[in-house]
Amino acid sequence: MSPVPTVRLRPATDDDRDRVLRWRNHEVVRQASFTTHVIAPDEHAAWWSRVAADDARHLHIACADGEPVGVVLFDDAGGGADWSFYLDVDGLEARRALLPTWIATEIATLDHAFGPAGYAELRGEALAKNSAVIKLHERFGFTVTGEYRRDVDGEPETVVRYALTAAAYREEEPA
Ligand SMILES: CC(C)(COP(=O)(O)OP(=O)(O)OC[C@H]1O[C@@H](n2cnc3c(N)ncnc32)[C@H](O)[C@@H]1OP(=O)(O)O)[C@@H](O)C(=O)NCCC(=O)NCCS
């Protein structure tokens, strides 16, 4: 396995649009999402424009040692943010770097959320069957705050909600 890289977040630009569609359409990411169809380029372009025009949504590209490796989306609400992310599964698997990059992206996300972005809380959701994601979040201090059932392409699925406050994050950080 590769060593844990240094990941930094930067705001997405239109040059990132095609790579983000490619990453989002990977089978692994679709199966982790709440809609699993292959997203067409025009559907993606419309979504991209909506996100760019929305002051509450902040789309970032995670870069590992300068290379784009994933997407991190913050959606401001109530002094905190709803957060979702996915990675370049193909590219990172080819480099045997998926897990270390995922860990580094989570660290960069928390540093950004509770640093420059100034959020009081970060919240996320994942399918219950995606237990590896939930366990990793728990290792970073997230706690499960609830769950609900929703339809995912015609199938009922359990979705787990998790959250971490800035105060709890600072308490856990090494001095
Ligand atoms: C996987 C994950 C990113 C899915 O994100 P999401 O925003 O909830 O995605 P959804 O599938 O619910 O999409 C929400 C809406 O945006 C649309 N959308 C999302 N990304 C889009 C894109 N790139 N282009 C077009 N539409 C898009 C969806 O079609 C959906 O539209 P609808 O509300 O009209 O149905 C999110 O659940 C998450 O962060 N999970 C935990 C982390 C994880 O498992 N990551 C993947 C591992 S690599």
Give a quick rundown of the structure:
This protein has a domain of 118 residues: Gcn5-related N-acetyltransferase (GNAT) (Aminopeptidase, 3-Layer(aba) Sandwich). The chain contains seven helices and seven strands.
Could you explain the architecture of this structure?
The protein has 175 residues and is α+β, with helices and mostly antiparallel strands. It has a domain at 7-124: Aminopeptidase, CATH 3.40.630.30. It has 7 helices and 7 strands. It has a 7-stranded mixed sheet, with helices on both faces. The chain is globular, with a radius of gyration of 16 Å. It binds coenzyme A (COA). Coenzyme A binds at residues 21, 24, 29, 32-35, 39, 43-44, 47, 84-87, 89, 124-126, 130, 133.
Task: Please supply descriptive tags for the structure shown above.
Aminopeptidase; 175 residues; 34% strand; 7 helices; binds coenzyme A; alpha+beta
Fold topology:
Layout: E1 7-11, H1 17-24, H2 27-32, H3 41-53, E2 57-64, E3 67-77, E4 80-87, H4 89-94, H5 98-114, E5 121-127, H6 131-139, E6 143-152, E7 155-165, H7 166-172
Parallel strand pairs: 4-5
Antiparallel strand pairs: 1-2, 2-3, 3-4, 5-7, 6-7
The structure holds coenzyme A (COA).
The site of coenzyme A has 21 residues, from helix 1, helix 2, helix 3, strand 4 and strand 5.
